[in-house]
Predict the structure.
Amino acid sequence: MNPFEATNLYIGRASKILDLGDRFERYLIEPEREVSVQVSITRDNGHVYTCRGFRVQHNNARGPYKGGLRFHPTVDIDEARTLASLMTWKTALVDVPFGGGKGGLDCDPKELSEGERERVTRKLVERIHDVIGPHADIPAPDVNTDAQVMAWIMDEYAKLHGFSPAVVTGKPVHLHGSEGREAATGRGVFFATEEYLRSTDQEISGKSFVIQGFGNVGSHAARFFHDAGGRVVAVSDVAGGLVNGDGLDVPRLIEHVAEHRGIAGFDGGDSIDRDDVLLQPCDVLIPAALGNAITDENAADIRARLIVEAANAPTTPAADEILAARGVTVIPDILANAGGVTVSYFEWVQNVQQFRWDIDRIDAELRKRMRSACSKVFEVARRREVDLRTAAFVVGLGRVAKAAVTRGIQ
Ligand code: GLU
């Protein structure tokens, strides 16, 4: 089953519960537009470099398409479709006035110089500028794209359409970005975990956490858990894993990563194999790297009782079933990692209003939206006696379907 089929399985389940019918289900599955472009630049050494760019616009019944751009060799049309669809349900769940989109380049940014990264970004904008825009489709950071890439997108778009900072979110704070955006996904993961534990009379303090992936999302989440009295007992990045049963010194680890560009060489824990990190004993496991990390090959060996999906699509449907049979609770990606797009919405609002919010307001509004999305999903799961993923899709689909029907599909 490819990832798009996996997402459609979840859509199908929720659509049956809501009794939407086969034809409406197809409307909710099919992306509205798919753009695939060639992106070529001249490298620093004078050679031509070519990669493929994609932008999939899944559904805009509730507002402009919204979602990240990733630069990674695994990017293809199927992955972009899957992730665009997830954005449609995610934006609906946290009730921000957007639909779902996603895209990227199938390049390996590690092989590109800073100048080459800038040129591929600008070329991608040149190719897709007519389908994006502040009220059409608003890209954002994702795997291997950051505030600098967003700044180049804003600048390139401005050459063609005039100054429009709201065309992209996740920009640098000094260049029309928002306070709190960089930490937002990790902070949302923290709020979702806190909310779930609260609903089951538990708390973060004293719990042990394993975090697979120590990029933007994983490192911020680790810091929030650590600050709240949680013990981060293992982490991993692309190069390897690190374990310390007493809890890693997260602030010091973050400093080490900033200096050495990875967790390798950190002296506050023992090195382990990257893939063994998922199998470490802990209370809460946070997959925060790429998709398909938890599969039918390792799901039976996972020792956590709670999995919080900080990454997009980290668990395959087959793994989901194994985990459910073992009584492991999964807080699904479209809920757990929705903090990023929520603060993207706040950034967009600030750009449109030309008015800056302070960090206290951002955090308070984010907490409010994450809490309300969580309690809605937990309530639907209880009432319909379904798992949290199915409940999240039921809530998301319900809202998108209602918007589509009210607008009218001609
Ligand atoms: N790439 C992030 C996600 O998958 C953020 C998207 C956005 O802010 O638009 O949710």
In short: The first strand starts at residue 33 and ends at 42. The mean pLDDT is 97.
